[in-house]
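Friendly challenge for the regulars: who can give me the structure tokens for this chain first? No prize, just bragging rights.
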Amino acid sequence: MIDEYWDLIVAILAGVVQGVVEWLPVSSQGNLSLFLTLVGTSPDHALQLALFLQLGTTLSSALYYRADILESLEAAPEWRPQTAFVGPNAVTSFVVVACLATGLIGLPLYFLAVGFVSELSGGVFIAAIGLLLVLTGVLQLASESVDLAAKSEPTLWDAILVGAVQGLSILPGVSRSGVTTSALIFRSYEAPSAFRLSFLLSIPAGIGAGLLIFVTEGGVPGVSLEAALVALATSAIVGYATIGILMRVVERVPFWLVCFGLGGLAIVGGGGVTLLGA
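First reply, four minutes later:
Bragging rights claimed.
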């Protein structure tokens, strides 16, 4: 009886894993591929399913930030170069410019790195992001009494920097949310704004990854269409809930504590990837 429903069970569990880890500073692609391999999925199919399921968490992000997206769409007809990073157009311009920067960095890096980038480098990078977050927490804790000016709208340079950093997530084991959120924090954004911009930036990236697999492979290799849809729906539902929980934590808990928690998780995750790749 278990064998009969095994594909659906794995699909649900894969959706849960994707929905949770996508927003944390650990590689969702690496962790989900590892899980799928452990339950018997071939490595190539595991990687393809992990990429496809980014469509689910992309839907989560789009639904959670639907008001921001609608505001940007309504303001699009009034877009002008001189006001690109002002008012409602700021987020749209940020996402567009950041995606262009991601392509300029990520595509050449992918073609140069494919074939010799190992999980060890990814694990070290995850751990480095964890250390960066812990350091952010230390600085935040030390400066609690200082009235620091925080940015409210993204700038052109923010978009270029964050987009370029996101290009690094093309490497195995590198956390997209970890590198983009850290970059925004060090650009003087408060935690909720940093997470919001990072999640919005995940939408075009997730759509591209999911459609790439579906179009090039004619579906999702290794699983039935039914199982793929179940996994997709599960990742969307769990991803939506996870965004809400994380944002409530970020808004109510001192951010230095959030940094320590997420940074410690990334260090442990990075160390685990490094050990597995050794």
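The mean pLDDT is 75. Residues 3-277 form one domain. Your move, everyone else.
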